[in-house]
Amino acid sequence: MGIIGSQQIWATHHQCLNDTQEFLHAKEIFRRELAGQADANPLSAAMWHTLDGEGFEGVPLYVASLSEEPDSLAQWRAYGGPASGFSLGFETNGIVLPSRFRLVPCIYDKENQREKVRSLVDDIRGRAPGYTTGNPEPLRLYVSVSSRIALHTLALVFKHPKFAAEKEWRIISEAMMDSPPGAPLDFREGRSMLIPYRRVPLRNSRNCFPLTHVVVGPNPNPEQSVRSVRSLLASHRLTHCNPRMSEVPYRSW
User: Fold this and answer.
1) Whole-angstrom distance, CA of residue 51 vs CA of residue 26
2) Rounded distance between C-alpha atoms, residue 190 and residue 124, angstroms
3) What pLDDT was estimated at residue 48?
4) Cα 146–152–158 angle (5° rounding)?
5) Burial letters for 121-132: b for 16+ Cβ neighbours within 10 Å, e otherwise?
6) Contact 218, 73 (CB under 8 A)
7) What are the DSSP calls for 157-184, one per residue?
């Protein structure tokens, strides 16, 4: 109801995502790529240091997750309610996001992940020859400012291969300060803490809400549920989005 009524989704601060191991997985890939080089290469040593401590996780990035699968048993079990749930489908070709957000597929293949890291490391090295001699402070600042954000952003799309069945895509932000001008930070109540998030309007190239379909999850009252969703869509002039029932033979009530 909130997504359809506001034509927005919420991008959550990445530290508040369900999977707390995501950044650890990405950090290990970076570490393996840099292993054995830190002692001999001051740039590699500075990059290695970038991975240490809470600073790596502390950069404010915001994430919203989507899936290629519109009607998945695993997704209903994980995210649907005990007797109701809804899958909203969006046309992503031509989607127009706010300037500091982008839509990217998650990467599950280990070799693809390693290749992305190698390419990033080579790019950072290629732009840093003037920093690798003399005073180490400019090198430290270069790595911190120029490469840390890139490492963080890449880490957000690296997923363990065991999650490949989710076929996840993510809307991710650039690094954003907690209170930039004109873009206030919102909060919602979590189970154990306040969770910061940002509102992300969804529009297409025609400046329309790109909702295309709604799948009603496994439900003890399927006909009534589809009918009520159809009424909700009509009330927001989204009559082209014809809702349908899930085809998954699953009962959780």
Assistant:
1) 10
2) 38
3) 73
4) 135
5) beebeeebeebe
6) no
7) TB--GGGGGG-EEEEEEPP--SS-TT-P
**What is the side-by-side strand order in the sheet with 101-105?**
101-105, 168-173, 62-67, 8-13, 194-201, 186-189
Q: What is the mean pLDDT of each run of 10 residues along the chain (253 residues)?
A: 96 80 75 69 72 62 94 92 90 92 94 89 75 67 71 83 93 75 81 92 95 95 95 96 93 82
Q: Measured on CA atoms in the order 202, 205, 206, 212, is the torsion positive or negative?
A: negative
**Residue 135: per-residue pLDDT:** 67
In terms of Cα–Cα distance, which of 142, 123, 122 is closest to 132? 142
State how far the alpha carbon of 94 is from the alpha carbons of 64, 73, 157, 205, in Å: 18, 29, 21, 6
What's this model's pTM, rounded to 2 decimal places? 0.85
DSSP H or E segment with residue 211: strand 211-216
DSSP state for residue 185 in the 8-state scheme: P
> For the chain, which residues make up each domain, given as ranges?
2-69+95-210
Greatest distance between any 2 Cα atoms in the chain:
73
